[in-house]
Amino acid sequence: METLFACCIGFLTACGVFLMLRGRTFPVVLGLTMLSYAVNLFLFSSGRLTLRGAAVLGTSEQYADPLPQALVLTAIVIGFAMTAFLVILAIRARADLGNDHVDGKLPESEMSKKESR
Amino acid sequence: MTLMWILLLPLLGTLVPLLAAKWNRSACALATALPPAIALMLVLLHTEQVLSGNTVRFFLSWIPLLGLDISIRLDGLAYLFSLLILGIGLLIILYARYYLSERDSMPRFYAYLMLFMTAMLGIVLSGNLLQLWMFWELTSISSFLLISFWWHKAEARRGARMALTVTGAGGLALLAAFLLIGQVVGSYDLDVVLASTDVIQQHSWYPILLVLFLLGCFTKSAQFPFHFWLPNAMAAPTPVSAYLHSATMVKAGIFLLARFYPALSGTELWFILVSLTGLATLLIGAYLALFKHDLKGLLAYSTISHLGLITLLFGMGTDLAAVAGVFHIINHATFKASLFMAAGIIDHESGSRDMRKLNGLWQFMPITATLAMVAAAAMAGVPLLNGFLSKEMFFAETLHQHLLGSLSWVIPVLATVAAIFSVAYSMRFIHDVFFNGQPKGLTKTPHEPPRYMRVPVEVLVALCILVGIFPAYLIGDLLHAASASVLGGAVPEYSLAIWHGFNLPLMMSILALAGGTLIYVNRKHLFDFQNTLPDVDTLNSFERSVKSLIARCDQFYQWLDNGSLQRYMVLVLLAFIVLAGVPLLELDTLWGGRDELPIDAVNATGAAMLLIAAFATVVWHRKRVVALLMISVVGLMVSIAFTRFSAPDLALTQLSVEVVTVILLMLALFFLPHKTPKQSEAPRVVRDISIASMVGVLVGSLSYALMTRPLSSISEFFLANAKTGGGGTNVVNVILVDFRGFDTMGEIAVLGIASLGIFKLLTRIPVFKPSSDGEGRPWATERHSLLLSTVSQSLLPLAIMVSVYIFFRGHNLPGGGFIAGLITAVAIILQYIAQGVDWVKERMNVEYQRVVAIGLLIALFTGVASWAFGKPFLTSWFDYFDIPLLGEIELASAIAFDLGVYITVVGSTLLILASLGKMTTSHRPVHKDTI
Q: What is the ipTM of this complex?
């Protein structure tokens, strides 16, 4: 199971990184969201995988590690806040700059394409 | 404490001329001279103690942990330098009174001068390396101010900049050297350092720290190849040149050589570096001085040459050479300062410093001419003057060294050659200026200076003669005490006498005098030869190289920081790959010995869906709505994963956040283009895929390595104490609101700040409202679906009830403030979607910023409340109550904290989503003052 879990984390990371390297804001937001899934799973996995062992006292013999869970819980909420901030920043940037490129300006190759049209 | 005042008085003295600016010039000068005069007396008070070989100390602990202390230390060497600094400083104050014209700001000049004096005294009196370094830098800065005193002249500004660049760079090297010494010795205290010779010299860092140390000394003391700044610093007013560039500041490097002589000298490396640098400087300076037509230029190169001589003496490594070095420091300071002042008088009273114009001044200013001639003779090393004595000692020492093995005979020969040139340029200074025909093309008729302007020169020249004739009587004790502190104890036998019989050094002196005369008489040929050599403009070439250095740094910076997020991201990721990859390469196996759980069908299906959805997101990322749908599947799968692996709280949180995120991104798509244009070229895609896969492989491997290793966690504590200490059975929630409550406090604060930032970003955003979607289809005009609004209305109380339930059970069962807050927020958002902003606003007119603030305050006050019971911040309390109908229930103060969390989450989420949603309506957030 751990192998599969690690593969999922690795794949999510790779997808997130690839999307974050794109040039437009929206894919970058998607990439960041994807990467935070991966990071949350990674942090969560540092408490090892446990089946049927929720950290509620009196419900089982073997409890899952509650500490990474508490950390990840706040990480999820803060991750949402950060994603939201990034999205709004992207909207604001598009409104102010007139394009949604992450650098705030279209690359020269595209500018010339536009002009030739 | 009197020692402290020696430093404090000149420092306070920087204010005196500024306060006395309104008085007349003489009164201002007098007032300025007062603090250094008192300081000089304080130094003299310690004469007996110091000359008998004692060291006077003053110590004030400042930051002992960093080795920073205020430590003042007066020994023989410091005493000698303090006398030079304060004594010559006083003469300079008097001289500058007459030198500066009405147009120059005298108070400003004096203030800079006093600042410099403080800095210089600080160097020589410091008993702590870091403190010494601070004063060292202060000399660079104050000398910059002094050189650029006539800031309206371009050459003054350029010269000052050059001096600051060179000496400042050297200062950084010196700092590095001091820090290394501090690391090696374990203390920055000078006494400890000087007593740790073996520790320093046997350490493997010794070569590095020595080179850095010497870089600092050589730049300051204008040693070859850093000598070029000194002639350019001659753009300064002459009192500055006399004070800084002959008597004191350029001696600071030499002082440091002497100061650290016991700790650093005596090794092969020291001999080679110091003596060869000194020798080269001695020769180059002496040779070039002859060809300078500017009086001050000649003196500047001569100073370089003499500094080289002293450096060479300290490099030779014999005790007697060090004594000779100290002696020459004194002698050079006296005759060179007086020569500079004489040059200043000539400049002042004849309007020129060009030796091609200045001729035959003897007839106009006989007294000044006599004084200058005596001083120049001392510089040339004529008997009965002080320069002769130290030069004799120098010659004698060159004969006793064995630095270059069988080639050691070269050094005395080269020393004689340098002395020949020294005689030649001294003769030029005398003959060319005061004799040799009539002045040519002077703008004014030269005359004697004001009476008191000559006094400083007279005093110094008198010292030259007196020391030259009665050396042992006048400065024998001082020299002995100073040499003792350089050598760290025993001083060898030496005799300070004019006559030592006919010996080799005397022969060398005679040879120098004769050879110098010969060269001067035949100078025309030498000048002709020199004129055929290309003229190097050091100032221009220096500035060019600085400029090109800056340009290259700029280029590199532009390349690195080109404003492209993609570029930064790639660099950061590459750094991650290296940093995370290298340790993994060193790891033998990834598997850490923990058995894996079996894979069941549900997990396998979930994982497959996750992978497919993630892949689909990437593939379709240019069709933004589709990508959004796909990524929400990923989020769903993640929350299912949390459920499977025993984290119900996480699953609930992830699920509700997922809903909010998707709504947010949908809303965002209204304002953003719906498709991403195809942009990346194929090579770029290949590059990004490689980087992404590498990062993915690394993170996956790391995670596998982590998961298969046995767990030893601090969580045992939380599991054991959750019920007894925190009063709850849901350990995750107890950690959040109790054990790690402070963290949670910070996290909800971040949430609040982010939402406020978003609110702020959306105010006054330029209006643009897309009228159609990405396909060109117009947005639907019908307002709200009847079905949805009916269902949502009936859903609201249900949802609120669920969230209250989740909130209250959170302490004992999965749930809590975060999750409940998100559920409430989603329920309200649903109303916005179903009914529109106006409808909600009519029924629930709340400013969400306030909600956020209230939530944060509740959390904060719960924490503060525990202070009232004498407990630390956020200590929780709980008890059991028997309430009719409900039975026994448990109430914990943590629930109030959780309420704060709940309200903050609701407020922040709604603030974010509602602000964005309102953008499409007339309720856009705007500044109140713009309405």
A: 0.93
